């Protein structure tokens, strides 16, 4: 039943996204969770505490976030029951946890901005989806940043929440989203958050392991439907480069995307004026990425999305058949 929920929530979000009027009216689950994380960060993460104490407080904060989110969503699922109307409501709620349409729209905006108005506009557009300093990026770097963001966020913004929806229902998907949001807000190696965000960062790494590998596989398989993409090179690049990335997960989809498109992604990047070293994904590939490459990457991601929908559809049918056996 959970994979049926995941399949239909993916389908609804792919077609409709999360309406902007709804954001203005009631917000978004990520905003609600983020508000809770920000409050706990302010209350529990105090500069006068030593490193160990702040680490413990970070664990307490993460447990408070997860217990709250799971209690609310599991309780809501139980109250709704098992009717068809209840399932429709759960699908609509679950569809807010993935970001297929918004991710595509934001990445496409970068290519459109570069084509229509040039580098300055492209920098503004890419600043909406990456944390690096846009003023330090030339046009190829803007394009690489957009493609890298597409690859990484496909994994942790689409595949992972869908997978945890399939495994744990609405509560599983919401718990994943809460952890991922906590990692994005406090899981940094900064003076303020290195200790307090340790638990969130480590848990996020762990729960993204299966999704990052699945996303890489989906990108490889999607190459068979994109004429100018290479499944062979994508596969080789994943096995050669993915494990070299500074993140245990981001390297997998980024390496698959790099190999598929013949690009060299990742490598050293500047965040808040600081050069962060990293290995190249697709070493030896082309660094001069263009807006056309962004569109090629989006085409590959669309086919990967279709393949994921097909996979979850098959799992949903298998689950229904097993339940009736």
TrEMBL record:
Localisation: Cell membrane
Chief location bin: membrane
Membrane topology: Multi-pass membrane protein
TM region(s), chain numbering: 26-44, 56-74, 303-322
InterPro entries (UniProt xref): Cobalamin_biosynth_CobD/CbiB
GO molecular function, one term: ABC-type vitamin B12 transporter activity
BP terms from Gene Ontology: cobalamin biosynthetic process
A Pfam family annotated for this UniProt entry: CobD_Cbib
GO cellular component terms, A-Z: plasma membrane
Pathway the protein acts in: Cofactor biosynthesis; adenosylcobalamin biosynthesis
UniProt keyword list: Cell membrane, Cobalamin biosynthesis, Membrane, Transmembrane, Transmembrane helix
Lineage top rank: taxon: Bacteria
Homology family: Belongs to the CobD/CbiB family.
Function: Converts cobyric acid to cobinamide by the addition of aminopropanol on the F carboxylic group.
NCBIfam families referenced in this protein's UniProt entry, alphabetically: cobal_cbiB
HAMAP family membership: CobD_CbiB
Protein name: Cobalamin biosynthesis protein CobD
């Amino acid at each position: 039943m959970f994979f049926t929920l995941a399949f239909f929530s993916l389908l609804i979000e792919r077609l409709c996204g999360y309406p902007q009027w709804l954001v203005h009216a009631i917000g978004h689950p990520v905003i609600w969770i983020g508000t809770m994380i920000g409050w706990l960060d302010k209350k529990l993460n105090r500069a006068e505490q030593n490193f160990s104490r702040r680490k413990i407080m970070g664990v307490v904060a993460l447990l408070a976030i997860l217990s709250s989110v799971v209690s609310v969503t599991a309780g809501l699922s139980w109250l709704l029951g098992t009717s068809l109307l209840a399932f429709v409501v759960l699908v609509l709620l679950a569809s807010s946890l993935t970001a297929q349409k918004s991710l595509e729209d934001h990445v496409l905006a970068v290519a459109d901005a570069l084509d229509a108005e040039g580098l300055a506009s492209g920098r503004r557009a890419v600043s909406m989806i990456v944390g690096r300093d846009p003023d330090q990026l030339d046009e190829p770097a803007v394009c690489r940043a957009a493609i890298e963001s597409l690859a990484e966020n496909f994994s942790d913004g689409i595949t992972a929440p869908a997978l945890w929806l399939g495994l744990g229902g609405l509560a599983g998907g919401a718990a994943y989203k809460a952890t991922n949001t906590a990692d994005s807000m406090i899981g940094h190696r900064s003076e303020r958050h290195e200790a307090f965000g340790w638990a969130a960062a480590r848990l996020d790494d762990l729960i993204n392991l299966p999704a990052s590998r699945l996303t890489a596989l989906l990108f490889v398989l999607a190459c068979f439907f994109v004429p100018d993409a290479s499944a062979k090179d994508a596969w080789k690049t994943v096995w050669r480069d993915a494990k070299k990335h500074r993140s245990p997960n981001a390297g997998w989809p980024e390496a698959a995307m790099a190999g598929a498109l013949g690009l060299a992604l990742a490598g050293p990047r500047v965040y808040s004026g600081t050069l962060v070293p990293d290995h190249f994904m697709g070493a030896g590939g082309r660094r001069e990425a263009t807006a056309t490459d962004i569109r090629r990457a989006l085409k590959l991601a669309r086919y990967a999305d279709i393949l994921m929908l097909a996979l979850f559809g098959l799992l949903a049918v298998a689950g229904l058949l097993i339940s009736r056996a």
